[in-house]
Amino acid sequence: MAPTASRARSAFRRFLLPGAVATTAAVLAYSYRPRDIPGHSSPAVPPPTFGADGSFKLPRFPRVKSRDEQLVDLRKSSQPDSVEYDMLIIGGGATGAGVALDAATRGLRVAVVERDDFSSGTSSKSTKLVHGGVRYLEKAVWNLDYSQYELVKEALKERKYFLQTAPHLSSWLPIMLPLDKWWKAPYYWAGTKFYDFLAGSEGIESSYFLTRSKALEAFPMLKPTDLVGALVYYDGAHNDSRMNVSIAMTAALYGATVVNHAEVTDLIKNDQGKLCGAKVKDLVASKDGRSVDEITIRAKSIINCTGPFTDSIRKMDDRECRDIVAPASGVHVILPGYFSPGKMGLIDPSTSDGRVIFFLPWQGNTIAGTTDSPSTISANPLPDEKSIEWILSEVGHYLAPEINVRRGDVLAAWSGIRPLVKDPKAKNTESLVRNHLIDISPSGLLTCAGGKWTTYRQMAEECVDAAIQEYGLNPKSVTNAPRVSGTEMIDDGAILDGTCQTHKVRLIGAHGFSNTLFIPLIQHFGVETEVAKHLTESYGDRAWTVAALCKLTDKRFPARGERISQLYPFVDGEIRYAVRHEYAQTAVDVLARRTRLAFLNAQAALEALPKVIDIMAHELKWDSHRQDLEWKESVAFLESMGLPQPMLLATRKQVEQGKIDFASSLEWKMYSRHDKPE
């Protein structure tokens, strides 16, 4: 027995122990390997400095054509002697703007028209995550579903491209998964490590385990009862509508004709019944009381990227076609920032009804959601009270008992319609497509629908590939590419040779961005620190232009930048920049998509509305009728953002004088400070 035991111990020492040590070392080396985290490196374009003569020269960025100039280009396409567009894209959300950028950087002649505004629908109402999907990975493992596994892996690759091409608008975010049972620790640890492994070179940071005390230190709001520890993994977060606007404006810089507030009223077919163009109406002209003439656009291909409204365009093409969109409503609520740490999110993978809920820091506040229930399709759906209460109830289960999440704490709430799609060519036409769908009708309408924000670039690439093959388009090298960075010395490293290069093409604002860019911005313009950080994280290196458009305050500090709401760092220069450089045409464009005030706090957006209208009226020469129209339409929109009912009837004069009846609101009634003294 003794010799046998001795030989076993000897074998263990010789083989198993070194193997275990080597495996542990490999895991540690992989987990803590150096990473090139987007936003942490020095900017490709250093910030401007003072010259030897004491002068300070602001960066000179290439100019984006104005919206009026883009409309002129659209009208030219109707002339017989003009060159028709290779692609006319209907829809300016994430998918449509992404297709426009991809096509433009392949040397194709492309136009994109959007009935409302860029990101006015689903693309602005996401959970603000850039993720592979840990819950999808769990389903892939348990169901032995290889296709689900492939979707997660592809999304993780796209996550890296996302963070690299727009580091100012996206960042990594640690997300905590609280554990209430010890047996869950190895289960979720294995899952998060597998998630890290799948990310591979596309990984951000490695997941890790926290003891109970460390979990409470990192997330003090957590309920300590039954908490045994937590796992933390990393995903990406972003500013969705600003990302969408940046994609559209970058496409415009690369030569795409990009027009918002332009509605397609009809599709045009040739004698063979094939699509060859569309008729478009400028909705801004009608708001201004100007005569509206339809614009005829000639194009070799028509691309339908209208999200939830996909079927309305398909029925323009073929009235008898079957609907393929199965709309699902996702409600989110915004709570004050004190409900979550500034740099840590939380996920509940098993709510009371089996859905997943996120609780994330975003723009200084806290976002919680989402629900997933069948819905009807409308432009600005209202968040239903039942969904709001469900979210608040689920969030409350994880927070300490002394922290009450009340209905009056909700600063904003919205409902986004997710366009789940069915394949019209599948045997079972009722089954939903896992990811996204590209379909071409007999008359030649190419529809791209489904998917999610993280994979918008991949969807666009596949869509353009399909269009090139189907319509015989000829991509070519882009020899006169704009210097988006504002300098002749820097480019993206993208070789624009007619192939897809959007995984390398950086968006407007990315080249000169770094996490310390806000410091020289403060030093030169004298803006507040909070404002400077906000500007650099929303506009990247274009923050120099935005700050220069800010009004002088006649104070020692801040020297520039008049806030449109005292609660948030949005300033007057952003409104001017939105109008002059980002095609903002309505007050809602500014409040909801250029700034995010309407999404962060509906009441604060109402209070800021008069100032926004005044600045836009000066920039766009609005008369009193147009200003009144903007007030009415903006207040109506804020209802879909959760503005309390008593405030929907407020007049502009009441808001300007601070005479809104807040006393009848839920929020007012919940604050004890309003009680009469005893």
UniProtKB/TrEMBL annotation:
Its cofactor is FAD. This is Glycerol-3-phosphate dehydrogenase. It is found in: Mitochondrion. The lineage of its organism: Eukaryota, Fungi, Dikarya, Ascomycota, Pezizomycotina. It is an enzyme of class 1 (oxidoreductase). Residues 86-457 form the FAD dependent oxidoreductase domain. The keyword Calcium applies. One of its GO terms (molecular function) is glycerol-3-phosphate dehydrogenase (quinone) activity. Belongs to the FAD-dependent glycerol-3-phosphate dehydrogenase family. It comes from Thelonectria olida. PROSITE patterns: FAD_G3PDH_1, FAD_G3PDH_2. GO terms for biological process: glycerol-3-phosphate metabolic process. Residues 500-626 form the Alpha-glycerophosphate oxidase C-terminal domain.
